[in-house]
Every structure is written in C-alpha cells, then in structure tokens.
Design goal:
CATH superfamily: Response regulator
Mean pLDDT: 87
Shape: globular
CATH architecture: 3-Layer(aba) Sandwich
Distance between the termini: 21 Å
Largest sheet: 4 strands, parallel
Low-confidence stretches: none
Order of helices and strands: EHEHEEHH
Strand order of the largest sheet: 2-1-3-4
CATH class: Alpha Beta
Radius of gyration: 15 Å
Strand content: 5-15%
Number of helices: 4
Number of strands: 4
Length: 161
C-alpha cells in the first residue's frame, strides 16, 4: 500500500447499525488526520441503533452525520486501503467479504444489539466501545510502515500490540 495520509479505512458488518458505526466515529475522532474512516453494511438496517448513538454521545462524539448505509454507496467513493470486518463469526453471524485489493482484517465483536435486556444491552455497548477504542488507538499509534502489514493489523485484537 504505500500511500500518503490519510488512509481510508472501511468498517464493515452486515447491518451497519452499531459496531461499524462506533468504529467509524472513534477512528474519525482519534485518527489525527492519518485516517479517514467509513462504515457500511452488506444488508444495512434502516438507521443506526439508538443505543449506539447514545454510547457515542456519552463518549463525546458527534453523531450528526452517521447513518446506516450499503457498501454499494461507497463504490463510487474513495478506494479503501484497509477493510475491517467486525461481525462475530463465533456466534454464527455471517460477516460480508468486501471486494477489491485493500488489506482485509477481522476484529470480531459480539453484537450488542442482540442483547434483549436494556440494562445488559447498555453494558454490552460500553464493552464493545471500550474494546474498539483500544484496538483503534493501537492502530493509530502504529508506525506508517506497519500499516501495510495485514498480520500486524489483525493481531491488534489478538495481542498486546
């Protein structure tokens, strides 16, 4: 990949209502101009989940421009340098594959939307936010030459990088 900044990063899941939007907001806010974050879904919901927006607001993020969208809407947009899927395959959730030559990695996360109890769902959203915030701050801290190494990017969620 060597390319100048910003690098385009797409966070992808099926519904684009919670996890991928949370990641997009975090990276856009902490990326220090090194990244431009996007999110999309293969089968997007009608709108972002209200609890995802509540969590983002509680963490100081603006939510004005976040919406659920299909990855088809990004076909005419910028070329993605990194595509990160965030579905939890361990829960038999099918995560889409994004075509193209970008680096593709997977950061699995359980879907907090699937938690039926409101109190527990709020906790699940906090945990998902905290986990992705940790991954994304590690991503942002990597030296430029490591941002094209698929193994390093994948290992952000598997180790103490």
């Amino acid at each position: 990949m060597p390319k100048s900044y910003p690098l385009n990063v797409l966070f992808l899941c099926t519904g684009n209502s919670a996890r991928s939007i949370i990641c997009e907001a975090i990276l856009n806010d902490v990326g220090n101009g090194k990244f431009s974050a996007w999110s999309a879904g293969s089968n997007p919901s009608a709108k972002p989940h209200p609890d995802a927006l509540t969590e983002l607001l509680s963490r100081g993020h603006s939510i004005d421009h976040y919406c659920s969208k299909s990855w088809n809407e990004l076909k005419a947009g910028p070329e993605m340098d990194i595509v990160i899927t965030v579905c939890d395959n361990a829960a038999a959730e099918s995560c889409p594959i994004f075509p193209g030559k970008s680096i593709k990695i997977h950061w699995p996360a359980a879907d907090p939307v699937s938690v039926s109890d409101q109190g527990l769902r709020s906790i699940a959203f906090r945990k998902v936010y905290d986990m992705f915030y940790s991954y994304i701050t590690k991503l942002v801290s990597l030296p430029r030459e490591e941002l094209n190494d698929e193994t390093i990017l994948q290992n952000i969620c598997d180790s103490g990088i």
